Amino acid sequence: MEPEKRVVGVKQSRKAIREGRARRVFLAGDADPALTGPIAAECAAADIPVETERTMAQLGRACGISVGASVAVELTD
Q1: How far is CA 47 from CA 11, 17, 63, in A?
Q2: What is the pTM for the complete model shown?
Q3: Helix axes 33-46, 10-18, angle to 10 degrees
Q4: Per-residue b/e over 35-70, b at no fewer than 16 CB within 10 Å?
Q5: What is the CA radius of gyration of the chain?
Q6: Rounded CA gap, 50 and 4, in Å?
Q7: What average pLDDT does range 43-71 have in this prediction?
Q8: 75 phi/psi in degrees, rounded to 5
Q9: Residue among 43, 44, 59 nearest 9 (CA)
Q10: What phi and psi values does residue 52 have, to the nearest 5 degrees?
Q11: Closest to 49 measured CA to CA, from 26, 70, 69, 31
């Protein structure tokens, strides 16, 4: 994912979803459901596609950070 076209983390991701800037949301399959569950519900209500195939480590690497990530959002143009 290109750095200028994504956000990483729960707070930034929820903000992007609320503002209608999210094209697709990535939720780590091994993340705490207490964190990812509400985001998945917001995505379902807003008809935003969600992918859950990656682990936190894989999602962090895909976003170019050295730690795991539970949530990442691909932004609209």
Answers
A1: 19, 10, 23
A2: 0.92
A3: 10
A4: ebeebbebbeeeebebeeebebebbbeebeeeebbb
A5: 11
A6: 20
A7: 96
A8: -90, 155
A9: 59
A10: -130, 20
A11: 26
